[in-house]
Amino acid sequence: MKRCLLIFVSLFVLGNTIAVRADTDAEVSARKDALDVAGAFSNDGFKIRDGHWCGVVKPHDHALVAVNLYAGNQYWFSAGATEPAKKIAVSLYDETGKQVTTENYDNGEKAAAGFSPANSGQYFVSIDLVDGEEGTFCLVYSYK
């Protein structure tokens, strides 16, 4: 009886472990590129926030991530993408959908947008495919 219970518990744990999604090679590569860009801002005192967002960026479509930002802080949103995406752009929108003015960096499949909000609240980071085909992206952000 104990052996059957042990086998059942082992199969249950194994089954649940398999269901946990691992990062794909494309996501790992895109995250590396995003962290490379974010690392440059850490030289200026920015701290890279724990966590990241990965997804697919498609032609004529936006990948949106909602973030809560606080007035008085400075932020950099850094993204990397994988082939066949050739060029991406990072934009920022306020809660009404109006694009806000950002400081921009772009280097093909790596891009970033810097912003200091005057008002605390929810904002939306948009990752856009400017050139190339559908690819995987990863977004990280830094603050100070």
How much of the residues is beta strand, in percent?
35-45%
The CATH architecture assignment turns out to be Sandwich
CATH classification class: Mainly Beta
- What count of domains describes the coordinates? 1
**Helical fraction:** 25-40%
Shape: globular
Protein structure class: alpha+beta
The major pleated sheet works out as: 6 strands, antiparallel
> How big is the Rg?
19 Å
Q: Measure the end-to-end span.
A: 58 Å
The CATH topology turns out to be Jelly Rolls
Which spans of ≥5 residues are poorly predicted at pLDDT below 50?
1-21
Number-wise, the strands total 9
Q: What is the N-to-C succession of helices and strands?
A: HHEEEEEEEEE
DSSP helical segment count: 2
- Average pLDDT across residues? 85
Describe the structure.
The chain has a single domain, classed as Jelly Rolls (Sandwich), CATH 2.60.120. Helices cover 25% and strands 44% of the residues. With 144 residues, it is an alpha+beta fold. The protein is built from two helices and nine strands. The protein starts with a helix and ends with a strand. The N terminus is likely disordered. Strands 1, 2, 4, 6, 7 and 9 form a six-stranded antiparallel β-sheet that branches. A three-stranded antiparallel β-sheet has the order 3-8-5, with no helix packed on it.
